[in-house]
Amino acid sequence: MQRIYRGRFAPSPTGPLHFGSLVAALASYLDAKKHNGEWLIRIEDVDGSRCKKEHAQSLISALSSYGLLSDLPILKQSTRFELYENTLQSLNTQKKVFPCHCTRQSLKTYQGRHPHICSPNISNTEKPSSEHSWRLLTNQKAIFEVNDPIQGHLLFDAEKLQNNPILKRKDGFFSYQLAVVVDDHAQEITHLVRGSDLLDTTTEQLYLYSILDWEPPSMCHIPVILDSNGNKVSKQNHAKALLAGDKLTLLTALKYLQITNISPALHIQEILQLAIKKWNPEKIQQSKSIQLKPEDCWLIQ
């Protein structure tokens, strides 16, 4: 039985909405609506040390000003730690994770790579001390295939997963990778349309889907927007906040998704309806990135 299309946009509330995020949000929204599907917003605030409540509300308000509204109530990862813990303990029961007591200092001895000494020395039935993280046991060989409408046929080798990734830190926060997989499964997300910068996270996510025996969503990765210096347009690179509900900004973002010839005289909802009809990911260049045109640099400066 074919699943009903459900997509999502899941920003981290570490700053206001910027141009690169708007392009990614639009791509996921347009793809969902083109397939008569649902589109959700999820706030990925799993890392409480970096995320702020005021940024979460700012992101939701900014998306709303561009007509991008969640079809279901907006979830926040900070309210879902019990679900992540249950999944982690299920993996522990299956001996697919292990507690790790290594310090950053001790890992430096091994050039940052995990020395694989924790798992043999601590059985899963022994209660570890409070000062430990939980690491993924990456001992299964697998090649994961993704047929990406933009990036083409992609292969992800589980053997390239390095350093037994941390799923839960010593301070109690869960990893982005575990949280996003658990939430996408729980919310029945069928399609991911996101930036190509997240390709690096895909192997670990597909590995988690595999060992949890869950069906992964289809994946499509759009080129990320680069500034004039070749840096990704991002909060880390101080991309400025967007003007709320600015039609010129919206039309410019659509241009980078190969959607053009829409009149600025239209209302935002009318622009979006036309954009849905014009959306075709196969028209987007097969590339990991695309440079911001000089005439558009005002959007990030």
UniProtKB/TrEMBL annotation:
<dbReference type="GO" id="GO:0006424">
    <property type="term" value="P:glutamyl-tRNA aminoacylation"/>
</dbReference>
<dbReference type="InterPro" id="IPR020058">
    <property type="entry name" value="Glu/Gln-tRNA-synth_Ib_cat-dom"/>
</dbReference>
<dbReference type="GO" id="GO:0005524">
    <property type="term" value="F:ATP binding"/>
</dbReference>
<dbReference type="GO" id="GO:0006400">
    <property type="term" value="P:tRNA modification"/>
</dbReference>
<dbReference type="InterPro" id="IPR022380">
    <property type="entry name" value="Glu-Q_tRNA(Asp)_Synthase"/>
</dbReference>
<keyword id="KW-0862">Zinc</keyword>
<keyword id="KW-0547">Nucleotide-binding</keyword>
<feature type="domain" description="Glutamyl/glutaminyl-tRNA synthetase class Ib catalytic">
    <location>
        <begin position="6"/>
        <end position="239"/>
    </location>
</feature>
<dbReference type="GO" id="GO:0008270">
    <property type="term" value="F:zinc ion binding"/>
</dbReference>
<dbReference type="Pfam" id="PF00749">
    <property type="entry name" value="tRNA-synt_1c"/>
</dbReference>
<protein>
    <submittedName>
        <fullName>Glutamyl-Q tRNA(Asp) synthetase</fullName>
    </submittedName>
</protein>
<dbReference type="InterPro" id="IPR000924">
    <property type="entry name" value="Glu/Gln-tRNA-synth"/>
</dbReference>
<keyword id="KW-0067">ATP-binding</keyword>
<dbReference type="InterPro" id="IPR014729">
    <property type="entry name" value="Rossmann-like_a/b/a_fold"/>
</dbReference>
<dbReference type="InterPro" id="IPR049940">
    <property type="entry name" value="GluQ/Sye"/>
</dbReference>
<comment type="similarity">
    <text>Belongs to the class-I aminoacyl-tRNA synthetase family.</text>
</comment>
<keyword id="KW-0030">Aminoacyl-tRNA synthetase</keyword>
<keyword id="KW-0436">Ligase</keyword>
<keyword id="KW-0479">Metal-binding</keyword>
<keyword id="KW-0648">Protein biosynthesis</keyword>
<dbReference type="GO" id="GO:0005829">
    <property type="term" value="C:cytosol"/>
</dbReference>
<dbReference type="GO" id="GO:0004818">
    <property type="term" value="F:glutamate-tRNA ligase activity"/>
</dbReference>
